[in-house]
Amino acid sequence: MRIQIVKWVSILALLSAVLFWNSVATFQLALNLFVCMAAAVVTLQAFQARRSAWVGAFGVIALLFGAFAVAALADPEQPAMRLGGWFGILLVLASVAAFAVSLTSLKPVQLRSMPSITDRNPGSLAL
Length: 127
Hints:
Layout: H1 2-19, H2 28-48, H3 52-74, H4 85-105
Helix pairs in contact: 1-2, 1-4, 2-3, 3-4
């Protein structure tokens, strides 16, 4: 459930970046850091689900937004890399699409319950 919330919040953050594209420079560092962390969380979820294509896709998203965040941290006044132009818009829209599709295709892994001594079916799925 927490990963689903992270996905929804990152979709909302990215869509707000598209809506307020002219003033995205004011909250670019926070956006880059949050999307990088959210993509890393989804990468771990995809790794646990053994979905290698999703691991690669969200790994690339995490690396790109992480590089933008490091560039903004290194020189806040004039970062070497910034979300701007058509590349930035395409990257944000592709990230929105990836997070949206991952909502349905990457289901959370259900944990097993504690095995019971008296239960006839030990290790059943937890509710």
